[in-house]
């Protein structure tokens, strides 16, 4: 069974890719850490793997660029159908069996936790196969309490371990406290929307503000 973290979100375009790069910065000096996005939709417009390589200043060896790369920027099950493909979570999970057992992973999902990947399975089914603790990326703004609590409930109902929440956007103490209290979870960081998203700014924030207590490190060793 692989070791590492699975990064999901309460919605699409929530900041999962930037958070994944930040996690690489924060912990790659303490673990043999690599990044993987098993399913990428909208590859003609967005290349999340390439963006993580840029933001985290990664060598090719630190990136696993395998999996499904689908053209249309829609839900994975629909993008696959339109491309004549079928997403098989078990086949994707087996890709990590071919990688060194000593590697630790930051795995980024596509869309939210309950996005469909085929006619009967959801992103949570891939999470269950990989068995990685889950980081939930959430907005800091109005509506985040409901969306985040629903995501946490969906993960726990499926016996998935929640490692923590990372909020993205302008800091909102009330929303943070509500998520921690009602969700029974720690907020590990409050990431700003960077006006100029460059590697150095992300690195500086990650090293100073992301999981300052190092609670995630035990999951990466």
Description:
By secondary structure, the chain is an alpha/beta fold. The protein has one domain: 3-Layer(aba) Sandwich (Rossmann fold). 35% of the residues lie in helices and 20% in strands. The chain is built from 8 helices and 9 strands. The protein has helices spanning 16-27, 48-55, 76-82, 89-94, 123-130, 144-157, 173-183, 199-209; strands at 3-9, 33-36, 39-40, 63-64, 68-69, 104-112, 134-139, 162-168, 187-191. The chain has a 7-stranded parallel sheet, sandwiched between helices. Strands 3-5 form a two-stranded parallel ribbon. It is globular. It starts with a strand and ends in a 12-residue tail after the last helix. The model has no long low-confidence stretch (mean pLDDT 96).
The CATH class, by name, is Alpha Beta
Shape: globular
Major beta sheet summary: 7 strands, parallel
Instruction: Tell me, rounded to a whole number, the average pLDDT.
Output: 96
Name the CATH homologous superfamily.
Answer: P-loop containing nucleotide triphosphate hydrolases
List keywords for this structure.
Rossmann fold; 221 residues; seven-stranded parallel β-sheet
Give the helix/strand layout.
Elements: E1 3-9, H1 16-27, E2 33-36, E3 39-40, H2 48-55, E4 63-64, E5 68-69, H3 76-82, H4 89-94, E6 104-112, H5 123-130, E7 134-139, H6 144-157, E8 162-168, H7 173-183, E9 187-191, H8 199-209
Helix pairs in contact: 1-2, 1-8, 6-7
